[in-house]
Write a structure and sequence with these properties.
By secondary structure, the protein is an alpha+beta fold. It has four helices and six strands, in the order αββββαββαα. Strands 1-2-3-4-6-5 form a six-stranded antiparallel β-sheet.
């Protein structure tokens, strides 16, 4: 995987982890960023690599009308491939440049605004992890093996 793509993954992780009440978990062959308390959290975004490892795929939700507008304005943003998610405003972005990460950061903050953030005393007792070097390393390794075709066993 290119160093440039690793950099984009790191930048997206920092953007998402800096949003209030966001935590992440490895899920669906990538990393799911969620808002709220564990067990009651809503998916904010799902980040993974393309099969070729040449781009980062980010799925997220906006208001349906706003989503349609973005699809028309940006060739790198498309409706989500799941037939039931796209009409609800879910989008998929294929990110290959820092400029796209900047645009996506603003869109992810907008998406975050659609999710109510629990009050501090209702937040998960576990502190939100910073984008540590260890977490970035785990993300990189998982991304590389996923790009090479590895998938978790079906009994996970």
């Amino acid at each position: 995987m290119a160093k440039r793509i690793n950099g984009l993954l790191d930048e997206l992780a920092v953007i998402l982890n800096d949003l209030p009440a966001v935590f992440s978990t490895p899920q669906w062959g990538g990393r799911a960023y969620k808002v709220g308390r564990e067990g009651k959290a809503k998916v904010l975004a799902h980040v993974c690599l393309t099969k070729g490892g040449d781009a980062v795929t980010v799925s997220f939700k906006l208001a349906p009308e706003r989503a349609r507008d973005l699809i028309e304005r940006h060739e790198w943003i498309a409706p989500h491939s799941f037939r039931t998610l796209a009409p609800a405003g879910w989008l998929t972005a294929q990110v290959t440049t820092k400029r796209q990460v900047g645009t996506l950061g603003r869109l992810l903050a907008e998406s975050h605004g659609l999710h109510p953030v629990p009050a501090e005393n209702d937040a998960s007792p576990r502190p939100r992890p910073a984008a540590s070097e260890t977490a970035r390393h785990i993300d990189r390794v998982m991304g590389e093996v996923s790009a090479e075709g590895w998938t978790p066993p079906s009994d996970w």
